[in-house]
Write a structure and sequence with these properties.
The protein is of the alpha+beta class. The chain has a seven-stranded antiparallel beta sheet with strand order 4-3-2-1-7-6-5. Strands 15-14-13-12-18-17-16 form a seven-stranded antiparallel beta sheet, covered by helices on one side. α5 crosses α6. It is globular. The termini are far apart.
Length: 358
Amino acid sequence: MDMDKTNVIVREGFLVKRGHLVHNWKARWFVLMPDKLLYYKYDGSKRDSCQRGTILLKDCVITCPFLEYENRPLVIKLQTKNGVDHYLETCSREERDDWAADITAAVDKLRTAEDRKVTNQQAPAGSHLRDINLSKVLDSMYDVHSGIKMSNHVEQGCTYSNCFSGSAVVDWLVFMQLTLTRTEAMTLASALLEEGFLRTVGLRSVEALRTAGLGQQFMDDSTALYSFSDSLKKRGTVKTESSVSAVELSGKLIKRGYLLKQGHRRKNWKVRLFVLRSEPAFIHYYDPTKDDISPVGGFSLRGCLVSSLDDNGVPSGVKGKIQGNLFIIITQSDTRYFIQAPTHQVKMDWIDAIRELT
């Protein structure tokens, strides 16, 4: 019975892992079991049968969010019992939090009764917020080395400078251990907002401040923007810019996920982070192994056709070892994108989402 339990698959999917010796990032297929994480390499468009590594979860320490990589805000850090660090990046905040929750649950189940007793003796959540000095929190946020990073953000076609998202603030407060949970972080951020230490930037955060109840005026949202109250005076007025790329990237986020894409020239298969947006309807794809946050490609969905490809045999135009779950997007200019999803359900979800926008 115990052997059967350890062979249960809790969760599986693509994650981007940092190497131990050479600190480059590689996309790997991860399988979460009750007591370990297994990971595999994709050979072309097919997962190889030989696992490339194992992370034992007993006595693991999970850090989520882990924010030491400026261009990688979606990283989970796992430190094993032997002190080995593993860095795993997901495709979205939702995926990151879901993976972290499942891994944490697995680690908790492996703990001894004595470990659980110690955990249960911790102070009640939220009790320490009364003792926090908001001015000191603000000073920490300003810190040039460990403080929150300001950058340009696009909202509804406008680019705002010297600001940060609500989710980034919540991530930072949890990472710095100023709060224990995201709910506590929202409460603390709302206090900073009420005291005038932070200010709203853009329509979403302004609307939330106007309509939300006291203590929940701050949004844990990647599209709600905020800034330091005096940063605009120090660095000038928030500027609005427009360009073709800004318009493309300003649409409403519909879907994110790791998919395999066949190259146009070499016909090799690579894992890419796909982002689907509406208003305007665009797909962009990114290289998750690179620190560059700019898309490596993308196209408008206007006039596109999307369809599933038969899993029997190799469709015309497709090269390499095929695992199935293929679909094709044909643009208005007749460019063909061959894409492979990790499962049939994921394939159909993407097809349905794209068809709603074409």
